[in-house]
Amino acid sequence: MDNQKDKYGPYKEVYVRVLKTGRTKFKASVRLQRHNKWSLLTITIYSLGLLIVPLAQGFGVTLNYDQSVINCIQVLSAIVILVTSVILSMSNFSVRSERFCNCGRELSVLARKLFIKRDVLEAGPDYKAYVREYDTILSNCENHSGTDFMICQLEMFEYFSPSTWFKIHTYFRYALEFLPYLLILFLQFVWLYLLFC
Question: Cα(54)–Cα(61) distance, rounded to whole angstroms?
Fold first, then answer.
């Protein structure tokens, strides 16, 4: 997958590692921002769907099921949205996204420091300090997912040459992360459709 076969000097090796890791951290930040937006949207729409049924009953709209079935489905739906809300709030997408973004910024600063030394072939006295700084930055942030790195590989053509199959696999894997939101919304819309139509 990595198409850089030539030997790197010590600074360039760290520089390339910092570039790849920084880009991946930014990709993780974007993925978590999307999770945050989708989770808020899902909870909002699902909650509104739960409110439609009692409002319709209050206005005397005829529904397609008996009251006992409607009550049972409404209670189950309320439990689903409660459990989903708790799980999503524990995931803390917004805070984690910000941490990944900050880590990516710190790695970008380190990459700029290493850029001027990338062609030096011998490790100087500051080499270990750069490696320690890199390790310190990474120790302050959780690890990104494999999907984040795969997305990064699709964009860094100078270091990777992904195959078509790899691209398909990566996008499919990325999309699967957001499937639960769509599934929950789909089930809510099916229930409302069956109830009113």
Answer: 10
Tokens coding 129:
């300090």
CA distances to 33, 146, 156, 179, 193 from 167, in Å: 22, 14, 13, 19, 37
Backbone angles phi, psi at 172, to 5 degrees: -65, -45
pLDDT of 8 reads 80
Instruction: Provide the sign of the torsion angle of the four alpha carbons 30, 32, 33, 38, taken in this order.
Output: positive
Count of domains observed in the chain: 1
CA distances, 13 to each of 8, 120, 122, 126, 131 (Å): 5, 11, 12, 14, 10
In a domain, 4, yes or no: no
**End-to-end CA separation in angstroms for the chain:** 52
3-class secondary structure, 148: helix
- pLDDT at 6 (0 to 100): 54
Find the domain containing 103 and state its range.
10-196
Residue-averaged pLDDT of the chain: 92
Which residue in this structure is represented by tokens 């880009």?
Answer: 23
Rounded mean pLDDT, 132-140: 96
Residue 84 structure tokens: 């989903």
Q: Is residue 160 part of a domain?
A: yes
| pTM above threshold 0.85 | yes
In a domain, 3, yes or no: no
Inside any domain, residue 42: yes
